[in-house]
């Protein structure tokens, strides 16, 4: 019994010592990431355009005789399946910062960066944005990578739309890490 207690105590002490890392362990010679911002309010405009080619398609959503096909980060293709043998693209809903969509009844709910936009689906020939909740959720203020240094996000500069390697190759401007 005393041996087991001694082993558990030593193991606990080793875990605690391992947790006491130093800030100097991060390699600041690596190029850090920096956020790309967009402060232009027009960049959040949802636009209804003529049909577009699908380049990076994703999930499908249905509403009556229509299918909405995701275009990753860009928006939704509106496709008519009234004649299943001859589907026809009717329009493209351009949604900058698009990540997800849901349909409930006659309404389409989409993400537009950090906003939630509601579009009434009463007529696919006359789509209109009916509501917008600004900053409906928090966008990550860190890059999608781990084990990296990065320049801390500054929400006063706009919405973070990308992460790129910094031009500051020394990493001295990077005060954040993940």
Brief synopsis:
It contains one helix and 13 strands; from the N terminus they run H-E-E-E-E-E-E-E-E-E-E-E-E-E. With 178 residues, it is mainly β. The radius of gyration is 24 Å and the shape is elongated.
Helix/strand layout:
Layout: H1 2-19, E1 33-38, E2 47-49, E3 57-63, E4 66-71, E5 75-80, E6 88-94, E7 101-104, E8 107-112, E9 115-120, E10 128-133, E11 149-150, E12 159-165, E13 176-177
Antiparallel strand pairs: 1-12, 2-6, 3-4, 4-5, 5-6, 7-8, 8-9, 9-10, 11-13
Unreliably modeled segments: none
How is the biggest beta sheet arranged?
A: 5 strands, antiparallel
Number of strands: 13
- SSE order, one letter for each helix or strand: HEEEEEEEEEEEEE
Principal-axis shape: elongated
Structural class by secondary-structure content: mainly beta
What Rg, in angstroms, do the CA atoms define? 24 Å
Total helices: the number is 1
- Give the spatial strand order of the biggest sheet: 2-6-5-4-3
**Beta-strand percentage range:** 35-45%
Let me know the average pLDDT: 84
State the end-to-end CA separation. 42 Å
Helical residue percent? 10-25%
Polypeptide structure, described:
The longest helix is centred in the first third of the chain and has 18 residues, at 2-19. Helix content is 10%, strand content 38%. The protein has one helix spanning 2-19, and strands at 33-38, 47-49, 57-63, 66-71, 75-80, 88-94, 101-104, 107-112, 115-120, 128-133, 149-150, 159-165, 176-177. By secondary structure, the protein is mainly β. A hairpin with a 2-residue loop joins strand 3 (57-63) and strand 4 (66-71). The chain contains 1 helix and 13 strands; from the N terminus they run H-E-E-E-E-E-E-E-E-E-E-E-E-E. The chain is elongated. The strands form 4 sheets. It has a 5-stranded antiparallel beta sheet with strand order 2-6-5-4-3, with no helix packed on it. A 4-stranded antiparallel beta sheet has the order 7-8-9-10, with no helix packed on it.
């Amino acid at each position: 019994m005393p041996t087991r207690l001694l082993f558990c105590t030593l193991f606990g002490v080793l875990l605690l010592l391992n947790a006491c890392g130093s800030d100097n362990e991060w390699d600041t010679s690596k190029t850090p990431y920096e956020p790309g911002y967009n402060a232009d309010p027009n960049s959040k405009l949802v636009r209804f355009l003529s049909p577009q080619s699908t380049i990076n398609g994703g999930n499908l959503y249905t509403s009556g005789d229509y299918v909405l096909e995701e275009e990753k980060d860009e928006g939704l293709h509106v496709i008519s399946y009234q004649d299943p043998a001859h589907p026809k693209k009717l329009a493209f809903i351009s949604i900058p910062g698009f990540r997800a969509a849901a349909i409930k009844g006659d309404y389409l709910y989409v993400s537009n960066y950090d906003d939630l936009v509601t579009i009434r689906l009463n007529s696919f020939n006359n789509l209109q944005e009916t509501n917008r909740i600004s900053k409906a959720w928090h966008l990550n203020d860190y890059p999608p990578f781990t084990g990296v240094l990065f320049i801390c996000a500054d929400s006063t500069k706009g919405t973070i739309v990308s992460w790129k390697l910094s031009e500051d190759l020394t990493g001295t401007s990077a005060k954040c890490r993940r």
